[in-house]
Amino acid sequence: MPLALLALAIGAFGIGTTEFVIMGLLPQVAGGFGVSVPTAGLLVTGYALGVVAGAPLMTVLGTRISRKRMLMLLMGLFILGNLVSAAAPVFAVLLIGRVIASLAHGAFFGIGSVVAADLVPPRKKAGAIAMMFTGLTVANVVGVPLGTLVGQTAGWRVTFLLVAALGVLGLLGVARLVPEVPRQRGVRLRHELAVFRNVQVLLAMAMTVLGFGGVFAAITYIAPMMTHVTGYAEGSVTWLLVLFGLGMVAGNLAGGRFADRRLMPMLYTVLTALAAVLALFTVTAHGKVAAAVTVFLIGALGFATVPPLQKRVLDQAHGAPTLASAVNIGAFNLGNAISAWLGGLAISAGYGYTSVNWVGAALAAGALVLAVVSSALERGSRRPGRIVARTSASEQVPVPADQH
């Protein structure tokens, strides 16, 4: 394993920790600023929307510098955002700090995915992407519980300071270990934008929104579901989330391994299983052991889709993958936001906490349908006598020699 992948994973660990740790600290933050918990929840929503907006924005701004330098700048922005959060005198400043940190999220994972894929032979690209995303998944097992514990005992400001320190470690790792690759000549913003004319790129991103959205339709409301339906104590929810995180780690690594062999069959299998498990969660949520097993499986199956979906975008946007890769990271967060909203609608309509599992199953099934459509279109484009262009001839995207 190239050591540069370790540096990227450390950065991903810090980003993953700051994204999710706030969920366990909302009561402390709300109490500290004298706001309601729903108002404090804007720190989650604001971060997600910042990722969606920041992914393309920061990537576009970084098209004129090397990927390594851009990764370093993004880690600097991440550190700044967490320092602002730690020192926030009022709630509005804390929200601003969260948004500043979120702007680095999508572009870091997007550009980092491209860098990770370029560090290894073509047959190992999905595995390299998975290795970087391992930092995000491990954050849910280690970083988030520890950050929550620190915040509850020493204060939430200390948690943000520690996350900023993780950012410094990631920055130093990128500076020392990631190789300096000259900026690609001939690949300009118009080339990056041209790939969005490719239907396959758009389908892959839509699969990301629906497939990953299926996971968070259920997980967003896991606390009230487990306490009100399953009968777990509130303190047990943290350990259930750790179990979910362990599933994420296992699924992410397995997804990267098998996606390098047969990507689309891997997606068919995982999305089918994910839709089935989410549907079954409406039943298993009524038993403690069965619910715990299901939470692990949702984490595993959900994150098994991440490496293949990210690689699918890179493959279809070949020659100018950076912006597409970053936008796809935003698509994961867009899926989170949409699924949480739809799940909330189901609960508000009186269908109960387990109704969100049906929402998640429907979203995962929708992603499966799109995967089948994508493959059918791809097979059709390969038939003799048919030519399907990715871009117009006048805007053909150059393919750097070091990418294929």
From TrEMBL:
CDD domains: MFS_NepI_like. It holds the Pfam family MFS_1. It is a multi-pass membrane protein. The chain crosses the membrane at residues 42-61, 73-96, 102-120, 127-146, 158-178, 199-224, 236-254, 266-283, 289-309, 330-352, 358-377. It is found in: Cell membrane. The keyword Membrane applies. Keywords: Cell membrane, Membrane, Transmembrane, Transmembrane helix. It comes from the Bacteria. InterPro entries: MFS (IPR011701), MFS_dom (IPR020846), MFS_Efflux_Transporters (IPR050189), MFS_trans_sf (IPR036259). The keyword Transmembrane applies. Residues 4-379 form the Major facilitator superfamily (MFS) profile domain. This is MFS transporter. It comes from Actinacidiphila acidipaludis.
